[in-house]
Write a structure and sequence with these properties.
By secondary structure, this protein is mostly helical. Helix content is about 70%, strand content about 0%. The longest helix has about 60 residues. It is elongated and about 85 Å long.
C-alpha cells in the first residue's frame, strides 16, 4: 500500500523549503523581537521561579525544623523525667 504525500505549499520538491526565501525585513525584525521577548520572558520566569522555590523551601524547612525541635524537646522531657525519677 502506498500513500501519496501532497505538499503543503503548492508544488514543492523535497529539496525546496516550504517558506519563501525572500522574507520581508519587517518579518525578520518581528521574528527577532519575538525571539528576544521570549528569551527575556524565560530568563525572568527562571529567576522568579528560583526565588519562589527558595522562599517556599525556606518556609517549609523552618516549619519542619520547628516541628522536629518541638518533638525532640517533648521526647527528651518524656524520657528525661522517666529515667531521672528512678535515679
Amino acid at each position: 500500500m502506498t500513500a501519496k504525500v501532497r505538499p503543503i505549499f503548492g508544488d514543492t520538491t523535497p529539496q525546496q523549503r516550504g517558506w519563501p526565501m525572500d522574507v520581508a525585513p519587517s518579518d525578520t525584525a518581528l521574528r527577532a523581537a519575538a525571539r528576544a521577548g521570549w528569551d527575556d520572558g524565560e530568563r525572568a520566569g527562571y529567576i522568579e521561579g528560583w526565588r519562589y522555590g527558595a522562599i517556599c523551601g525556606l518556609l517549609a524547612g523552618l516549619l519542619l525544623g520547628a516541628g522536629g525541635v518541638a518533638a525532640a524537646i517533648h521526647l527528651g522531657m518524656l524520657f528525661g523525667t522517666v529515667s531521672g525519677a528512678g535515679a
